[in-house]
Amino acid sequence: MIFLLIGPPGSGKGTQGRILSEKMQLPFFSSGDFLRELAGKEDSFSRQIRLFMDRGELIPDTLMKELFLLEIKKLIVTHGGIIIDGYPRTLDQAKDLESLLLSLNISDSNIYVIELIVEVNELYKRLNERAFCPSCLRVFQFHENICNTCGTQLNRRTDDTMQVIEERLREYELKSRSLHEYFSNRGFLMTIPGEGSIQDIASTIDQAIKEKKVGINKK
Ligand code: AMP
């Protein structure tokens, strides 16, 4: 099965994606984590990636398309499915991914798109208060100091500043918002309220997946 998590920055895609990954026993791929690892290197390609990320802009497909698709393909072929956070983020990426899934003979009934909906003020608040574990990459509230899973000192993301947050939310409106209609028309979309406790949201996602499965089997 293929699960795609979409929604604005701060909507909880990474947190819910990791939970789903454990439940489904499928690998978790975060395009943002993948890029942060690349951007941490000291070559000209990495510097180019960093420039876009620091500004809060999406990395152009001319730079990343092949690398993203290669990594996603590798994980699907090895594990039989995947949970993806942060890809696709544009209609072009959605079409590229669908072509890949088609080439891997993955049927539409095995594709689930989970969209998390969170009110914009709450997004600002969450991003402003966010910290992450540099070791296991889990996300926390800023006032926490130590990762409760691996004990590592938490860090702040360099793009979680007010100016860059604004740009990332603008990019979302401009380039990613249309994915809602696209995936809805394709019959893949499950829209989930992303506010409330992490566990409640995870349960709502579970329920929506079960209902979609029942719906598919009835057809
Ligand atoms: P995230 O960790 O998902 O918030 O992503 C952090 C940053 O990585 C974004 O602000 C973009 O600069 C870049 N990024 C992540 N996913 C993509 C993508 N699918 N396409 C282009 N850029 C991306």
Automatic annotation (TrEMBL):
Major subcellular site: cytoplasm
UniProt keyword annotations, A-Z: ATP-binding, Cytoplasm, Kinase, Nucleotide biosynthesis, Nucleotide-binding, Transferase
RNA-binding listed as a keyword: no
Source domain of life: Bacteria
Classification via PROSITE patterns: ADENYLATE_KINASE
Cell compartment(s), UniProt: Cytoplasm
Keyword Signal: no
Record-level GO cellular component terms: cytoplasm
Enzyme Commission no: 2.7.4.3
Annotated Pfam families: ADK
Binding-site residues for ATP, renumbered to this chain: G10, S11, G12, K13, G14, T15, R130, G196
Reaction(s) the record says it catalyses: AMP + ATP = 2 ADP
Any one of the GO BP annotations: AMP salvage
Region (NMP): 30-59
One Gene Ontology MF term: AMP kinase activity
This protein's pathway: Purine metabolism; AMP biosynthesis via salvage pathway; AMP from ADP: step 1/1
Binding locations of AMP: S31, R36, E57, L58, I59, G86, Y87, P88, R89, Q93, R157, R168
Protein family membership: Belongs to the adenylate kinase family.
Subunit and partners: Monomer.
Entry comment, domain topic: Consists of three domains, a large central CORE domain and two small peripheral domains, NMPbind and LID, which undergo movements during catalysis. The LID domain closes over the site of phosphoryl transfer upon ATP binding. Assembling and dissambling the active center during each catalytic cycle provides an effective means to prevent ATP hydrolysis.
Function of the molecule: Catalyzes the reversible transfer of the terminal phosphate group between ATP and AMP. Plays an important role in cellular energy homeostasis and in adenine nucleotide metabolism.
Protein name listed in UniProt: Adenylate kinase
Organism expressing this protein natively: Psychracetigena formicireducens
Gene transcribed to yield this protein: adk
